[in-house]
Predict the 3D structure of the following.
Amino acid sequence: MQVGIVGKPNVGKSTLFSALTLAPAQIAPYPFTTIEANVGVGFVRTKCPHQILGKPCQPKNSHCENGTRFVRIEILDVAGLVPDAHKGKGLGNKFLDDLRQADALIHVVDASGGTDCEGNPVTKGCHDPLEDVAFLDKEVSYWIYGILGKGLDRLAKQAKVAGTKIEKILYDKLTGLKINEAQISAGLRKADLNADPTRWTEDDILRLAEELLKASKPMIIAANKCDIAPPELIKKLSDAHERVMPTAADYELTLRRAAKAELIDYTPGDHGFKIKSPEKLNEMQTAALNKINSWLIANKGTGVQECLERAVFEMLNLIVVYPVVDETHWTDKEGNVLPDAYLVPKGSNAKDLAFKVHTDLGNNFIRAIDGKTHMTVGAAHVLNDGDVIKIVART
C-alpha cells in the first residue's frame, strides 16, 4: 500500500513527508523544491496483542513501543502541482506519472492562505485554500480523463460488436493507474452514463474520470501551517470538505528529530513531550521546545500522525493482522513472539492472508487457526482487526 503526498509547491509537502518518515527531502520556501519523487516509510499505530498474551513481542517488520505497534506504510512525496499541470505546465506531467501507484492521497494545503495558486509567497490570508482543493481535483481528474479518452471511441465500438463489457475495456486502459474492476464499476454507477459507451460525450468521460478518482485514490486534506493559519480559513476548509485534518508539519518534524537525538521523550501522535536532556540544549532551543509543547498540549497534537492514520484506516479501510506459526505461543519458527504485522483490507479472509504472506501458502491453503480463540476456521473466515492467525497448508 502506498500513500501519496500531493499539493501545489511550497505548502509543506516535503516537510510533512520528512516528519512522517525522517527520510531526507529537500525543503525550502520556494516553488519546485521537489523535482524527483521522494519515497520513504512511515508508520501507523495500533494496539499490539502481546499485552493479551502477557509476553513482550519481538517484531520483525514493524516495531512496538509501550504496547503500541507501529506498522509500516510506504509514502510518496511528488513534485508540486500547478494549474494546467495536465497540459504539461510546471512539472505536471512528471507529478502525474509519479502518482500512478498511490492508493490514497494526502493533499497538503497551505491553510494560512500565504501562498498563491503557483506556490509563490503572498501575505497571510490573501489566498483562499479552497481554490487549491478544487484545482487539484480538477487536474488529477483531467489526467485520468486524458488516459480514458484516448482511443475510447474505437474501443467502445469494437466492444459493442464483440459483446465485450465496457468494464473490461476500461480496466485494460487503466490498469497502470492501479484502478481495479470494482472501482471501475462503482465509478460507472455513480457517473450515471448511457449504457451504450459509443454515445458517451466528452463531459460524460470527464464525469467518469472524476468518479474514478474518488473511488480509486481517496483523499484527505492536510490543512497545513495550522499553527499560523487564521481560524476562519481552517473552519472554511472543514465546512466544505468531509476529510480535513489541521497539521503543523514544521513542529512535527522538529519533534521527531529531537526525539531521534534523544533530547525529548516524544512518540508520534502524542499531545505533549518531556525534555530528557536539558543540559544538551541552549536557552533558545529550550524556549523553542517549550513554545511548541505549549501549542501541542493546547491543540492536542500536530495532526501529522493522525492524518496518515485516517488515510490508512478510514479511507483505505485497512486492518492489522498477525500471522504466526505457533497459535498457542503466537510465535514464528524461530520462537519470535508476534514477529509480523500485516495491513489488509477490511473484509479480507483467511485465504487472502495466506496469499499475502506467501503465494505458496495461498495455493496450498488447508485451514487456519485463530490464535485468540484456538478455533479452526476455513478459507472464507473474515478477519478482524488485531487477529492472530496460523495458516495451515499442504507441504
The two ends are 30 Å apart (CA to CA).
